[in-house]
Amino acid sequence: MPLGEEGVGLDSLSRLQLSTRISEFFHIHETGAEDHLLECVTLRDLHEAILFSLRQYAGALTFRSSGSVDQPHACTHQAADLLREAICWSEIIGERGRIVSFVPAHHIYGFIWTVMLPSLTGLKVRRASEHGYYATLQGLMPGDLVIAVPELWRFIDESAHSLPEDVIGVTSGAPLSRPLARSLAGRGLVRLIDAFGSSETGGLGWREDFDAPFRALAHVSPDESSDHSQSREATCSQDRIVLSLVDGRRRTLVAPDRLVWENLRHFRPLGRRDASIIIEGHDVHPEKVRDLLLTHPEVIEAAVRPDRMTGRLKAFVVPARALYDPDELAGRLRHYLKSRLPAFAMPRSIRFGTALPRNRMGKPADW
């Protein structure tokens, strides 16, 4: 298929952006072959150019964070570390017939479970993006391993299709509620594995009991230099994790989520770290502005994040009533916030919709 207008529909700028992203993802710049990407005319050309580069260097991959809190950023991982994580998951899962994926493969969660794991185990992969969500759900077979995110597990639970015997599920990307987990078990799902991690860290732990803490993967541990006898609040602000890498190095970092370690092998996440931004020299916390919006009786859901164009805050609101005048409601919300926030923390724009924007992983998305 041609990449241009008569095929995929990419103009020259889009092709340049695509080439840049492909080069970043596969580290094609390591081989000096990135110029070949700009010479590609078809999808097959791109495929061959990527393979040409991978035959020379395939040591690392760079993923992009979801941008659920701040702007998406590059997260580089050594391929050997990703493969080691896939080995951990294969031991946890055990033998399966095939993998059925409802998630994109370019996200680190999808890549490890639907690219690395099948390359390790030889399992075939059926992707909902190719066959359609309903057709994929209808075609589930005994022994399948289903990879999805909470939003799609809800779709699976609410659909009219019954689950066959001996189907195992994996969820990640966002919290999945206990009632939904119980409902899926009642529909016949024999195991539902909650995989916890991030684009920055890779997988960190897992659980099957949604009331229990997460069990850390073998290469993950708390930073033992931290004092874990502190209060929960103090630990949250100081907790660090250590990743034992395949090459023998140890990488110490602070996870994007706040973690409290109950012991050296089990932890509980307490949500994303508070991402403050600087506006007019002041620390501003978008989550606190969102919480304030949620106290208004006409707001049922809300999201607040920085606007890349203005550097100020913007808000997205799901009104409590279906019938409303957007301009009048925005005016009432601004009046409500004005008496409770300094001027620099006020959202400069407010958009409305029936649901908060989310990406294919079910995480909060920009608007």
The number of distinct structural domains comes to 3
State the fourth-level CATH superfamily of the largest domain: ANL, N-terminal domain
Strand content: 25-35%
Give the uncertain stretches in residue-range form.
228-238
Largest sheet: 9 strands, mixed
Globally, the shape reads globular
Mean of all residue-level pLDDT scores: 89
Compose a concise summary of this entry:
The protein is of the alpha/beta class.
Structural description of this entry:
With 367 residues, the protein is an alpha/beta fold. The protein folds into three domains: 12-58; 74-272, 3-Layer(aba) Sandwich (Rossmann fold), CATH 3.40.50.12780; 277-352, 2-Layer Sandwich (GMP Synthetase, Chain A, domain 3), CATH 3.30.300. It is built from twelve helices and 19 strands. The protein has helices at 12-26, 34-38, 43-54, 79-93, 108-121, 128-131, 133-138, 150-158, 178-186, 232-238, 286-294, 326-338, and strands at residues 60-64, 74-78, 98-101, 125-127, 144-148, 167-171, 189-198, 202-207, 214-216, 220-222, 241-244, 250-253, 257-261, 266-272, 277-279, 282-284, 299-306, 313-319, 349-352. The protein has a nine-stranded mixed β-sheet, sandwiched between helices. The protein has a three-stranded antiparallel β-sheet with strand order 10-11-12, with no helix packed on it. β13 (257-261) and β14 (266-272) form a beta hairpin. α4 crosses α5 (108-121). It is globular. The model is unreliable at 228-238 (pLDDT under 50).
